[in-house]
Amino acid sequence: MRKFEINWKIVFWTGVIVIFLWILAKKAGLFNTPLIIEIIPYIGGIIVILAIVKEMGKTINKLDNTISDIKEMKTEIKNIGCELHNLDKRVAVLETRI
Questions:
Q1: In angstroms, what CA-CA distances link 58 with 53, 54, 55?
Q2: Against a cut of 0.85, is the pTM above it?
Q3: Among 5, 26, 48, 60, which residue has the fewest nearby CB atoms (within 10 Å)?
Q4: Contact by Cβ (8 Å): 46, 89
Q5: Looking at the domain assignment, is residue 44 inside a domain?
Q6: Which domain range does residue 49 map to?
Q7: Distance CA 29, CA 81 (A)
Protein backbone atom coordinates (compact mmCIF):
# COMPACT_ATOMS: atom_id res chain seq x y z
CA MET A 1 0.00 0.00 0.00
CA ARG A 2 1.29 3.42 -0.93
CA LYS A 3 1.89 5.93 1.84
CA PHE A 4 -0.09 9.17 1.54
CA GLU A 5 2.19 12.17 1.63
CA ILE A 6 1.25 15.86 1.61
CA ASN A 7 3.14 18.11 -0.79
CA TRP A 8 3.47 21.26 1.32
CA LYS A 9 4.54 23.43 -1.59
CA ILE A 10 1.20 22.76 -3.27
CA VAL A 11 -0.60 23.47 0.02
CA PHE A 12 1.30 26.76 0.34
CA TRP A 13 0.46 27.96 -3.17
CA THR A 14 -3.16 26.85 -2.82
CA GLY A 15 -3.45 28.95 0.33
CA VAL A 16 -1.90 31.97 -1.39
CA ILE A 17 -4.26 31.60 -4.36
CA VAL A 18 -7.31 31.31 -2.07
CA ILE A 19 -6.35 34.52 -0.28
CA PHE A 20 -5.68 36.29 -3.59
CA LEU A 21 -9.01 35.18 -5.11
CA TRP A 22 -10.85 36.21 -1.97
CA ILE A 23 -9.30 39.69 -2.11
CA LEU A 24 -10.22 40.04 -5.80
CA ALA A 25 -13.81 38.91 -5.20
CA LYS A 26 -14.14 41.20 -2.20
CA LYS A 27 -12.86 44.23 -4.13
CA ALA A 28 -15.11 43.39 -7.09
CA GLY A 29 -18.10 43.32 -4.77
CA LEU A 30 -19.13 39.80 -5.73
CA PHE A 31 -20.42 39.05 -2.26
CA ASN A 32 -21.66 40.73 0.84
CA THR A 33 -19.57 39.69 3.76
CA PRO A 34 -21.26 37.13 5.97
CA LEU A 35 -19.04 35.69 8.66
CA ILE A 36 -18.20 32.50 6.77
CA ILE A 37 -16.81 34.53 3.86
CA GLU A 38 -14.74 36.73 6.15
CA ILE A 39 -13.13 33.65 7.69
CA ILE A 40 -11.76 32.42 4.32
CA PRO A 41 -8.58 34.58 4.30
CA TYR A 42 -7.79 33.59 7.88
CA ILE A 43 -8.08 29.91 7.00
CA GLY A 44 -5.94 30.49 3.92
CA GLY A 45 -3.39 32.35 6.02
CA ILE A 46 -3.25 29.54 8.57
CA ILE A 47 -2.70 27.03 5.76
CA VAL A 48 0.12 29.16 4.33
CA ILE A 49 1.76 29.47 7.76
CA LEU A 50 1.50 25.71 8.33
CA ALA A 51 3.14 25.03 4.97
CA ILE A 52 5.97 27.46 5.75
CA VAL A 53 6.54 25.90 9.18
CA LYS A 54 6.58 22.40 7.68
CA GLU A 55 9.19 23.40 5.07
CA MET A 56 11.28 25.11 7.75
CA GLY A 57 11.14 21.90 9.80
CA LYS A 58 12.45 19.93 6.84
CA THR A 59 15.29 22.42 6.39
CA ILE A 60 16.19 22.31 10.09
CA ASN A 61 16.18 18.50 9.97
CA LYS A 62 18.57 18.57 7.00
CA LEU A 63 20.84 20.97 8.89
CA ASP A 64 20.85 18.68 11.93
CA ASN A 65 21.81 15.73 9.73
CA THR A 66 24.59 17.77 8.14
CA ILE A 67 25.93 18.83 11.54
CA SER A 68 26.00 15.24 12.79
CA ASP A 69 27.78 14.14 9.59
CA ILE A 70 30.40 16.87 10.08
CA LYS A 71 30.96 15.75 13.70
CA GLU A 72 31.50 12.18 12.49
CA MET A 73 33.99 13.42 9.90
CA LYS A 74 35.89 15.36 12.56
CA THR A 75 36.25 12.28 14.75
CA GLU A 76 37.36 10.22 11.76
CA ILE A 77 39.96 12.86 10.88
CA LYS A 78 41.25 12.81 14.48
CA ASN A 79 41.51 9.01 14.33
CA ILE A 80 43.39 9.20 11.05
CA GLY A 81 45.75 11.75 12.60
CA CYS A 82 46.48 9.40 15.52
CA GLU A 83 47.05 6.48 13.16
CA LEU A 84 49.36 8.61 11.02
CA HIS A 85 51.34 9.62 14.11
CA ASN A 86 51.76 5.94 15.07
CA LEU A 87 52.87 5.06 11.54
CA ASP A 88 55.35 7.94 11.61
CA LYS A 89 56.88 6.50 14.80
CA ARG A 90 57.13 3.05 13.23
CA VAL A 91 58.82 4.46 10.12
CA ALA A 92 61.30 6.34 12.32
CA VAL A 93 62.14 3.11 14.17
CA LEU A 94 62.64 1.27 10.87
CA GLU A 95 64.88 4.04 9.53
CA THR A 96 67.13 3.82 12.58
CA ARG A 97 67.51 0.06 12.09
CA ILE A 98 68.52 0.44 8.46
A1: 9, 6, 5
A2: no
A3: 5
A4: no
A5: yes
A6: 8-97
A7: 73
Q: Are 40 and 16 in contact (CB under 8 A)?
A: no
Nearest to 16 by CA among 45, 42, 36: 45
Give pLDDT tens digits for 33-53. Answer: 677 767 878 888 888 888 889
Q: Which residues of 52-72 are buried (b: 16+ CB within 10 A; e: fewer)?
A: eeeeeeeeeeeeeeeeeeeee
- Residue 6: C-alpha distances to residues 61, 70, 73, 82 (Å): 17, 30, 34, 48
Mean pLDDT (the chain) is: 84
Q: Number of structural domains, the chain? A: 1
Q: Is residue 3 part of a domain?
A: no
Asked if the structure places residue 22 within a domain, the reply is: yes
Tell me the backbone φ, ψ of residue 70, rounded to 5 degrees. -65, -40
